[in-house]
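Hi U.,

Before I forget, here's the chain from the pilot set. I'm dumping it here mostly so it's searchable later in email.
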Amino acid sequence: MKFLSIPLALAVAVGCALSTTARAADGVDAEALYRKAVKSCVYIITPSKGEIAQGSGSLIDVEKKLVVTNYHVVDGRDIVFVQFPIFKANGELETDKEVYKANVPANKAIKGKVLHRDKTRDLAFIELEKVPPGTPALPLAKSSVGVGAPVWNIGNPGAVEQVFSVTEGKVRGVGLEKLDFGDQVVIAKMVTTTNAVNSGDSGGPLIDKRGFQVAVAQSINLKAQLVSSFVDISEVHAYLSEKKLKIKELSPETDPKAGPKPGTIPKQAEEPKKDIPEPKKEAGLATTSVQEQEATELLRRSKLFSMGDDNRKIYLAKLQEIIKNFPGTEAARDAKQILDGLK
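Structure:
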């Protein structure tokens, strides 16, 4: 089934950016929130066949110079041009899009190498040549945003002459979705919001009232009013883990939704150490709880491809990947049983 949604890089404009001077109903200073978050946002330009494709993204680790965006923003390109907000001498943000575009042929834009891309999640990681001094990374939320929460997205819509514009909305829902765009099928946990986003907003951050990134702008539904889709932050964390990219955690450990920090033991479980399970072993291989979790998550995602002949090759490849990369885990044993049954 094809959804009447299209990736933002190809979308027709359906709305306009909201002013950053507005205050949310719950008292959030949206203007201050924007001023803080925008410093971590980027404008991505990908020249192609004499044309300029535009997208958005966010810096998620300063040391690794790592930016997250959409797969469909970078597509098959290995190099893209990235720019952070330019501030004038008086502290005012330069928003003229033409100034940023002119920086590309003038060699003033930052080159970015596409490290990893996931077409199914519609995510990509870009490694920059450098990061401007003093530029902060955007904190990633540790868990999904709640339904009804106020959210803001920052991007660079083609329908607006200014870069780094912002819209405000509410979360409609959060859950696993399959979006069929013809040449790309996205299967991921998505955040659906009322934000009025447009072509060029692709890859930009969706932030909550704390200023934490909770999702990545992905697509809009042209047959509905104010229905926009964002890739949930849990997919970003899972992809980072799969690619063994460890970034600096910036969100506080006291996040009520997050629970204990991965790898830590709750205080009440520290005393009776005998109750802490030993790593599982099979054929001389030991596995940790983190590996078990990663493998289990990959197996869950692989089963999304279990239906339909078109997905068979992808399904088999993902099962083989689990067996190869996570030997000794329960998920690897389950994957092998499934493979044996399919032969």
